[in-house]
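Hi R.,

As promised, here are both runs. First protein below:
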Amino acid sequence: MRRAILASVLVLLGSLAFADDQCVRLFLQAKEEFRLAQYEKALASLDALAAEAEKPGNEKYRAQLPAGLAFYRGACFAALGRTDEAKEKFETFLTYQPNASLDPAAYPPKVIAALEETRHGMNVAAQKPAETGTLAASYRAYQAPVEKGAEEAGEDWAEGPVRFLLTADQKMDYERLSDPASRSEYITEFWKGRDPKSETPENEARIEFERRVAFADSRFSQDETRGSLTDRGMVFVLLGPPTWAGRKPINTGDDVNDPKGMSMYSDLDVRNALRGQSSAGSNRVYDRMTSTGTKLPNADGNYREVWHFRRELLPAGISYQQVDFEFITRQGYGANVWNREPRTLSTLEKARIAVRSGTFTRAASR
């Protein structure tokens, strides 16, 4: 079913969602003012709603407001001809509801145009490697600490980031070594066999590997786990910085089995809408008002971090034009957990084979 009018009811919270009747009143007031084209008044009511939600007692619900406030503020600004301000608000809204569409019969053309222009601008930006403020830019500017033998810690060397490169037999061979001298010799020979330019004094493969490890340790650590040993760290060590990275909120409606989804409609709303409807009409109304698309964004810090790798940054043998890695953060699930699927599994295995031989993707030279 087309997701028309989704935004118009995005934060129709009603008494089910807000314990504070004042919040309900202010929301309905702003919505009615918008309908009557009283856009300045609607903006004032939205400001009052935001302030009311900050009061003690509304902590549980105030985090539900950002998407709805952003949409209605953007819609008001667009209708008033304040396009730049509208786009700023719509950009926030679209991070919550990237596929939202509007019914032309319910919104002024200026509102629909501003929303679509914002969406187009965000899509174009997502296709371009950003030059500043990204992992790629940060990595280019990164100066790894000078620590000779940083990965020669002793018995646990094979349990460190180099485990992404070791075969099972190599790991067993190393674990059989009982003294520091033999372990040091093994590590030296291991990297010597992966030196892409044996005629130079530097081992470029080892330098790049240890630089990636150091960067991952500095950026992706979680609790007691060093950054290079997390899922994001592993992908970074093997593939280098992505073309683009960003985060998207996970909406409760994304998972129909998620009991925490909060409906935009109360039971009373549904019952009232069904009154006087035919059987076929009742079914359509019920489906529209109870579908997963009518769930409010979860405000518990659930999100997916997406890393886009374009073809030129992928290892040899990968024919995809782009591969996206997703890292899921969700209560009761984990933090930045790699969402394993066939495309990313095959890409990472190709990268592992390449790095084992001392061949890094072109991201290394960026």
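And here is the second one, sequence first, then its structure tokens:
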Amino acid sequence: MNAQLQNLSANLGGTLSLLGEVTVNRLGFGAMRITGDGIWGPPKNRAGALAVLRRAVELGVNFIDTADSYGPNVSEELIAEALYPYPKDLVIATKGGWNRPGPNQWTHDASSEHLRKAIEGSLKRLRLERIHLYQLHAPDPVTSFDESVETLAELRAQGKIHMVGLSNVTREHIERAQKIVPIASVQNRYSVADREWDSVIDYCQQQGIAFIPWFPLGGGKAVSDALAKAAKAHHANPHQVALAWLLQRSPIMLPIPGTSSVAHLEENLGAGNVHLTSEEYRQLAALKK
């Protein structure tokens, strides 16, 4: 057995406070991959998808990220089916702002009308009275960004949202949003190989905003070789090292690796047992694209 699977718990990655109000374990779960091919329709193995969600919670995952566009609707429905009634400490984060014409197709709609309908749909599917963390999935090029955030602020004031987050944004977007409503999290693409948003992470750390990296396991050959070398030294696998690097990158980092496999879920959570040396961390950091 992989040595990193012997002592499994999501809390081994440490904890993070969202707006000083809610504490979650820093190894979360992204629920995009529990849907069908092209993030469309039901999963091929429904029982397997439900098992992954239940195993995640058993292992201490108390932050699950989803979106109404995953399926669409399928991911949220599966979360409720698998986990409702929810553990008291479970934070479910969902997102709105996309339409789904078909498999692998995504179109913007962050209009006020769309977001209000999206919130109601997510509340119903997740069987919640209030969304723990609701994220604008992406700025809409034909809708004012401020209008989108103002809509979420209004829904927060109405009690339908506890905390507001952003996704796929720049520092300028975050600063504009902060003038409207407290921002709990930012979710952008980021990995040891893909470091475009380093400056956003630094800003989030200054502001106490959680950073949720999506596609956290991306990498090219040079990165893959370096991860494999470090993995061998730690009796781990490269994915665990990639996640461990993210955890060491910043205390506000909240990785949400997703999978439709219980075995892969357990491997990902094993990252909490991997502690890179300063030199290993620096060597990997130097390999960004």
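A quick note on the second one: The longest helix spans residues 112-126. Let me know what you think.

Best,
J.
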